[in-house]
TrEMBL record:
Domain Ribonuclease J C-terminal: 456-550
Protein name per UniProt: RNase J family beta-CASP ribonuclease
Transmembrane segments: none
Domain Ribonuclease J beta-CASP span(s) in chain numbering: 222-339
SUPFAM superfamilies referenced in this protein's UniProt entry, alphabetically: Metallo-hydrolase/oxidoreductase (SSF56281)
Pfam families per record: RNase_J_b_CASP, RNase_J_C
Lineage: Bacteria, Bacillati, Mycoplasmatota, Mycoplasmoidales, Metamycoplasmataceae
Amino acid sequence: MEKVNIFALGGQDENGKNCYVLDYDDSLYIVNAGVKIPINMSNGVDTLIPDFSFLEKNKNKIQGVFITDIKNETFSALPWLIMKVPNITIYTSFLNKQIINERLSKYNIKSQSYKVQSITKREKIGNLYVQPFSLPGTAPGNLGFDFITPNGDYVFMMNYSEGDLGIFGKAWFIHLPKLFNKRKINALITDAGKSKQPTRSIDRYFIPKSINKVFQQTNKNNKIIVGAYSEDMVNLHQILELATKYNRPVIPYGKAYSDLLFLTKQIQEKLNPEFKYPVIQDHKSISKYDNAVVLVTGSVERLYQRFLRISQNEDLHLKISRNDSVIMMAPPVNGLESLAAITLDEIAKKTRNITEILESELFICRPTRLDIYNLTKVLKPSVLIPVQGLYRYLVDAISYIEQDKELSKTVKSIILQNGKIAHFANGKLLSQNGKIKEVGDTIIDGFGVGDISTEVLAEREVLGRDGVVIINSLYSPKTKQIVGQLHINYIGVIDQNEQEQINKLIKDSLINIIDSNEFNTMREMNEKVRKTIRKKIFKLTDKDPMVAFTLTMV
């Protein structure tokens, strides 16, 4: 009997730390090994990675690690995986191979401990065949992987769109069955972390008009400073096109993006030599070019800190002048809204010419619910497993597909929490009751693998997802009234300019609950307040924070 198990060591009901395992007849195939950045890096916590204990115990069964793309939440835990499980082979695209080798070279890991290999065609690895296929992504070289067994295929697809993104890849779902030789798809494991978007992701592949306007209106003797995440190459590429159009030199200011740009430029010159890049200058020469487009890039957790340093005149090379224009096309993740607001305020003290691009305006190269539905309709997998996102978005992807009653008859959709096992026998799903015990977070501090209490971990988990609202006041049991001022604190929930509206919502809700209900215990009241406020904040902001409500007796 052919046995296949699929489970996640990370990435389910969380943003980041993506790591999935396919167990084929006791041989392990690992798909991705990413990190998750904690929102608050106090207590020495720099990075969270999956718990690799299971892989360490079963290292002799590992056939390879398959990396789909070069986002931090996809591949940045590789150094620690190699430290735990040496002598592994990493399979990925040619461009990804260069980035992975460069990243691993920063760690004191012997080159004999790993091998990074480009995979361009179907290969037999262990006891099954693995077929890579190209997908459009935020950088060239994005791959999907098809694990081929005698009883059917298991397909993994992460961080992709459908359509033509030029140098960043092109793919149409309707052509995929030919790629798979119309073999039966036992399971489709697909990214669903951005399923809430109502349209196809490719429909938003354009530069917002406000960015064009900045290029049109900024004086030719003043800089245009663009803030973006290093891995967001597909949107930055459109900035390069605008720089060429308006005859402005470009200065990349961030090593990770500079390295990616160098490699991408080489690929572009081979595939499309007619494409005109702007003149690219070194970041040390920023002061020599008053009309430059300066691309300030950084990782998700570092970018705003870097801009804050620039706005406070603490940067060696870049100064913001009064007539410069600043474009911030890096929507802050949950928990960084306050830092982002403070940073933009500091920039405003230097220049009034600030354009902030919201997430709803920016192209994100990840499938939406409509993309996932169209893909499922074409591939017709026996089982659909949405991955790589918060639980409610995984549910959203399934709910959208289940609206098609005919499709639901042939496709069974399931959600796996981290560690839960989908068990297949001869290509058919038998159960999802099994569980891997070694699942959780491993802490990485500035010196390596660290340790920290579970209480802090729990706090980081909440902050990293949707934040916390803390409400407290004084309460008189004699009068049964709140007698003190209501104190409301937000951690990683909303922007400062929205707090007044949410404050009013909380106060009105609290008054209504107290006036219209009777409670036998304070615990009942506390529970009612927390649930009500949580629901109302979710309806208003699409965030589901933890609500801590405390009344101090006087």
